[in-house]
Specification:
CATH class of the domain at 30-103: Alpha Beta
CATH topology of the domain at 30-103: GMP Synthetase, Chain A, domain 3
CATH architecture of the domain at 30-103: 2-Layer Sandwich
CATH superfamily of the domain at 30-103: ANL, C-terminal domain
Largest sheet: 4 strands, mixed
Radius of gyration: 15 Å
Helix content: 10-25%
Order of helices and strands: EEHEE
Strand order of the largest sheet: 3-2-1-4
Number of helices: 1
Strand content: 15-25%
């Protein structure tokens, strides 16, 4: 890959190239996802809602993809996340810029 000055083409922690790959990096998952941050008690919690591909829409395949993505998140950034793999077409689409992060934590 040709590098251009001032551009970061790799994940800084893992060194994995980030150009031209599925952003979730797991087989069976479409590139559509949302991250939801909440604070039900004192600690922040992160939930990832990912969308399954049509070929991997069975409950067993979705459960396997959820486990794989949860392990990948834990190994790459070191935090635990609840992963929900949804049916194909269920993650909201946007006509403009996609809203990937939903922050439900109380302000202040």
């Amino acid at each position: 890959m040709a590098r251009k000055p001032g551009r970061n083409y790799c994940c800084q922690k893992s060194g994995v190239p980030i150009v031209g790959i599925n952003p979730l990096g797991c087989a069976g998952l479409a590139p559509h996802f949302q991250i939801e941050l909440s604070r039900p008690k004192r600690l922040n919690q992160m939930a990832v809602m990912a969308e399954a591909t049509p070929a991997h829409a069975s409950p067993e395949a979705r459960a396997a993809s959820a486990r794989q993505l949860a392990q990948r998140i834990k190994s790459v950034i070191g935090i635990s996340a609840e992963v929900r793999v949804m049916e194909p077409g269920s993650v909201p689409r946007s006509e403009g810029k996609a809203k990937r992060l939903i922050d439900l934590r109380p302000k202040g």
